[in-house]
Amino acid sequence: MTQTVFTQNFIGGRRTAPLGAETLEVRSPFDGRLAGSVPLASAADIDLAVAAARDAFDKGLWPRLTPAERQGALARFAELHAPLAEEFAHLVTRENGSPIAHTRVIQGIVAVQNTAYLKAAVEFPWEVVQAGFPAGETLWRKEPVGVVAAIIPWNAPQQSALVKIFPALLAGCPVVLKTAPETPLDGHRLGELFNDAGVPEGVVSIVTADRQVGEHLVRHPGVDKVAFTGSTAAGRRIASIAAGQMKRISMELGGKSAALVLEDADIAATVAGLRYASLSNSGQMCIAQTRLLVPRKLHDAFVEALVEDIKALKIGDPADPETYFGPLVAERQRERVSRYIQIGIDEGAKAVIGGLGLPDGVKHGAFVKPTVFVGVDNAMRIAREEIFGPVLAVIPYEGLEEGIAIANDTPYGLCGGVWTRDKAVGIEVAKRIRAGTVSVAGAAPNFLCPFGGTKESGVGREFGTEGINGYTENKSIGI
User: Fold this and answer.
1) Which among 252, 340, 377, 407 is least buried, having the fewest CB atoms inside 10 angstroms?
2) Of these residues, 173, 215, 286, 462, which one is catalytic?
3) Residues 6+ apart with CB under 8 A from 135
């Protein structure tokens, strides 16, 4: 296995010797082989990164460039980044065990995401003259919010990093990116690309830190905004700290999304769509539709088709393009998901495929069996708590009103899906689902439209002009 080694942090556009003494080794959750290593940042390293960003914001060129000039640098970054898609895909697979087929798709999504942000920046109302009421005129400006701490998870690290860095930089904000300890290598790899694109010194820092040092970044008085993707529990902690300092926040948190299957749904097409909507990356996706709400009269046929589809999916080496289910990110995650499988059994649900233990033919690695539970009530823990693994709960319902009620009976509100042959009906049902994003019949996301959650699934939105808006402050100048 190729090893990717960084011996220095990326602080304000420069490789800088770490002030801490610890080195973090990254090992594959498939076979334990060393993928690479990075410095583990100390609080002093964080102080250095924030100081560089603070200086870049208060005195530097980047916030004072025109939006078009910043867009030019980010366009050059996108041009440099896109040809490296295959390299990044393999790097992420080595880090977190995501199947290479999945990481390749994600890198394609990242390229579209970058292009969409650039398009949104052109359309963004950076400065407009508003007719006064009752008289005069007002200059309405969107100005950068300040220094941004971007804190990301391990499941889709490239996408998570750039979905925050791009709009922050477009808005004129310097960024300190804290990668997850599980996936630091691909994040550090981005550093020199920003330099090559012409982003000035001080504007971008990339560090890897544990939870305690990450909290130091959140608390740092030099940080104006925290942009976070991760668990709802961690989001609550960050929000409580930020609120005490009146910092701006945006958070994309957990989900327990419902796939609401309507009576007219094509079962084969729906199951094929749920293969991706529910089980991509071994279910380690906050957007995964893991509660499958099915009309009672379709239940048995649906479950049979779902089980047969899962049986045909390959489990094994994530570097194999034919593999659909790779290992989970770490042994601790395997243990966590296995505990939930046991909880489902203890609650009285039945696993019609999967269950406890390693999948057949698997000798090592952080694997769990893809599991489908039936006999699930929406009050069960396996239907209410985010498991973050390949564990699905099939819940029957009687009548559309009950189906919608079950879909909305959750503390989360990130995503959802309505599976029907009738687009018009699907739209009307989707309007009634309390979630930030709802797809009809597996429709692809639109990266020019806002994405984010309601309820405990987060605060704020990413993508499009609304995503850029989250990194700005409004200023009104009477003229």
Assistant:
1) 377
2) 286
3) none
Indicate if 173 belongs to the active site: no
Report the alpha-carbon distance of residue 291 to residue 402 in Å, rounded: 14
59 contacts 12 by C-beta, under 8 angstroms: no
Active site residue 415: no
Domain boundaries, the chain: 4-253, 257-449
Helix residue ranges, H only, 15-66: 43-58
DSSP secondary structure letter of residue 211: H
Q: Which of 252, 456, 462, 466 is catalytic?
A: 252
Domain covering 4-253 in this structure, CATH number:
3.40.605.10
pTM beyond 0.85, yes or no: yes
Q: Tell me, which fold does domain 257-449 have in CATH?
A: Aldehyde Dehydrogenase; Chain A, domain 2 (3.40.309)
Joined together, the tokens standing for residue 74 give 């980010």
Tell me the pLDDT of the chain (479 aa) as tens digits: 689 999 999 999 999 999 999 999 999 999 999 999 999 999 999 999 999 999 999 999 999 999 999 999 999 999 999 999 999 999 999 999 999 999 999 999 999 999 999 999 999 999 999 999 999 999 999 999 999 999 999 999 999 999 999 999 999 999 999 999 999 999 999 999 999 999 999 999 999 999 999 999 999 999 999 999 999 999 999 999 999 999 999 999 999 999 999 999 999 999 999 999 999 999 999 999 999 999 999 999 999 999 999 999 999 999 999 999 999 999 999 999 999 999 999 999 999 999 999 999 999 999 999 999 999 999 999 999 999 999 999 999 999 999 999 999 999 999 999 999 999 999 999 999 999 999 999 999 999 999 999 999 999 999 999 999 999 999 999 99
